[in-house]
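Saturday, quiet lab. Running sequence design on the structure tokens for the scaffold JK sent over.
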């Protein structure tokens, strides 16, 4: 079907998806239109409406979901109302993009997946790091036969406590709105990446800390993940108070015959490689990372590939939205569906359970 889009939530992510969907339509990549915005805050609603020329502008999400002019909904609100809104969208039989995390836990995320599947709607989750060139190319390198079996990885993500600066909202400091802290709200991206690298998790040991004293909102989580294939991964996620630092990640993967690592630039940084095949250090420069990513993407449209360039983070959201809208226009499922998100949620839940009980959690028993 021809996507006729309504966006719920006109904050940071609603605006980002508004721009990316508009680009897809304006440039003719997708035949469709941005029709409406639902935003509770008056000033945000008006500025979104003025910039986007949306013709249905409302404070009431139900009005958007029930509009006959709209067949595709983006949920870009804080996590606490994703489940309720997603159920309404599924009941209305409309295509659904929902920002990550889908919900507060895997049980609610699975309810959303089941509702979407029962309704037969196209659905996609906003696990945008799947569209990061360094993440994508590191996966390709690990999968090369010459790398040998993946043995381990150390991954750290950090950002300042996101209730200040460019975030322009404080809901991430309120457990009733965010559900938990840095692991659920931010590092669910990392857990999804690790699942895409190493497969199913066998056992989890985790701890969480609350340095900044926000009840129920951890600002540090640390986990050891044992994977079914035998790899053991250490993951740390931090919300600190270093305000000049942008949100970033670093990763160091070790396979039997190769090591790959990147630091701080989680979009298009250089990848450091040391392989037996080369017998020395051979780094892949940012430009080549982008080139390999553009060539490896499952996207045929040359017009879009032209836009895959160095150091434009907005690119990931464009590729993400194109992937979703293309699936909607072809009446099929997206490969980044809610099933993918539910798997990441289950690992996040297990880390929290381990942190609560002080015991490892056996995931093969779940
Ligand atoms: N994928 C990513 O890279 C990424 C990055 C940031 C945030 N997120 C996710 O996106 C979602 C939104 O985060 P954000 O940073 O844009 O938050 P935000 O605070 O900037 O914007 C959320 C907006 O939703 C509005 N809203 C809330 N409930 C509403 C309702 N029922 N109807 C209409 N409007 C409503 C609020 O008024 C607010 O303007 C969260 O799930 C967050 O985890 C994803």
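Result came back. Writing it out in full:
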């Amino acid at each position: 079907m021809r996507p006729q889009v309504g966006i719920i939530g006109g904050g940071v992510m609603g605006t980002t998806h508004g721009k990316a969907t508009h680009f897809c339509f304006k440039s003719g990549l997708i035949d469709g239109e941005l029709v409406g915005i639902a935003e509770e805050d008056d000033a945000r609603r008006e500025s979104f409406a003025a910039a986007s020329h949306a013709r249905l502008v409302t404070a009431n999400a139900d009005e958007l979901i029930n509009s006959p002019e709209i067949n595709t909904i983006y949920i870009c609100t804080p996590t606490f109302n994703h489940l309720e809104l997603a159920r309404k969208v599924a009941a209305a039989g409309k295509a659904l993009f929902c920002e990550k995390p889908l919900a507060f836990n895997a049980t609610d995320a699975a309810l959303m997946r089941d509702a979407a599947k029962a309704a037969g709607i196209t659905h996609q989750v906003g696990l945008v790091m799947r569209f990061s060139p360094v993440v994508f190319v590191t996966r390709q390198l690990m999968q090369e036969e010459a790398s040998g079996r993946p043995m381990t990885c150390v991954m750290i993500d950090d950002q300042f406590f996101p209730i200040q600066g460019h975030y322009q909202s404080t809901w991430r400091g309120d457990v009733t709105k965010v559900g938990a802290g840095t692991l659920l709200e931010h590092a669910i991206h990392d857990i999804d990446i690790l699942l895409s690298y190493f497969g199913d998790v066998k056992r989890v040991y985790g701890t969480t800390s609350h340095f900044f004293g926000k009840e129920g909102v951890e600002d540090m989580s640390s986990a050891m993940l044992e994977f079914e294939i035998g790899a053991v991964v250490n993951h740390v996620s931090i919300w600190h108070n270093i305000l000049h630092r942008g949100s970033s990640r670093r990763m160091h993967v070790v396979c039997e015959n190769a090591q790959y690592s990147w630091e701080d630039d989680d979009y298009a940084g250089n990848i450091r490689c040391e392989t037996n095949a080369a017998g020395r250090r051979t780094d892949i420069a940012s430009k080549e990372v982008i080139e390999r990513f553009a060539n490896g993407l499952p996207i045929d449209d040359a017009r879009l590939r032209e836009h895959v360039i160095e150091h434009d983070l907005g690119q990931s959201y464009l590729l993400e939205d194109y992937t979703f809208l293309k699936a909607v226009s072809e009446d099929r499922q997206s490969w980044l569906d809610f099933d993918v998100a539910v798997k990441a949620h289950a690992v996040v839940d297990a880390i929290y359970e381990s942190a609560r009980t002080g015991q490892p959690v056996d995931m093969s028993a779940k």
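Notes for JK: The chain has two domains: 4-128, 129-308+346-355. Residues 157 and 249 are 4 Å apart (CA to CA). Ask whether to fix the surface positions before the next round.
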